[in-house]
Amino acid sequence: MAEQTPGEQAYDDGPVAALRRIAFLLERGREDTYKVKAFRGAAAAILPLGEEAVAAAVADGTIRRVEGVGPSTATVIEQAVRGQRPDRLARAEAEHGGPLVSGGEELHALLRGDLHSHSDWSDGGSPIEEMAFSAIELGREYQVLTDHSPRLKVARGLSAERLARQLDVVDAVNDHLAGSGFTLLKGIEVDILDDGSLDQGDDMLDRLDVRVASVHSKLKMEADAMTRRMVAAVRNPRVNVLGHCTGRLVTGGRGRRAESTFDAQAVFEACAETGTAVEINSRPERRDPPTRLLELARDLGCLFSIDSDAHAPGQLDFLAYGAERAEAAGIDPDRIVNTWPKQRLLEWARS
Ligand SMILES: [Zn+2]
Ligand SMILES: [Zn+2]
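Above are the sequence and the zinc ion SMILES. Below is the predicted complex in structure-token form.
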């Protein structure tokens, strides 16, 4: 190992871990995707080379010629190979490594998993296995993979055929992770169509562990029609979670969007009656439902699911935001389905 100069910190996790950690922290801190891509791309480029070949390429100065490695990622790799904590990693830890929010810590610690996340099969940024590894690193017992359904073309929603292939990949990932105590669960974020029916066939939906249903189109539909649409969806026995119920956007790069209008009392009463969980969507730009509706759902006896809706591994940590809101609203942890043991969760989702 190379000698360290004073002030440098030792680092022995290796270059792939350093690049992945930087990317995770940037995603968690909601940095632009293009900044993150370089680090994820470089990690993917050097992983198959193996540690010895990477160390040799650093030693003879050819690491910068590896496809997918650029000047800043090469510096990270060189420092990590030399056993120094990369400067870029130290900076990312300082900027984005602290607590995301204050409050909700106790509830956050009770969350065993997450019912809503996306991979690069639809509009997420990372492969399925990277999402799974990151969930394990966060101490989760399970993660539900919920890529989009066919009609959401902008998000590359999965046809029945692609979903069937994805389920084989999920099986393969779980085989690989056997003995880890972690399970990647099969799921979908299925579009609620205009008439309240679902954008995937019953036979495919029946092959899944958990089904989140969300409105993504015609968000400005007239209130009575929207109420009928949402009530029909949450009464569908295959639906487990009502995703981001108002569709609002409160901040962030996608701009702002008003809440859909509907009879929230009627929708939440249907949720309470059928045991469909109301999602507390943790994405900072959604914060959905708004507090007054969160409290209404609480008072009507609904179940809840605190979901990250992660589109990148670092966003899996967003559950902290949802936990803060749920705790502030005084929601009993036992009404939050992702505090339950996995077996109880799966039985609820099947029934
Ligand atoms: Zn959605
Ligand atoms: Zn989603």
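The chain has a mean pLDDT of 96.
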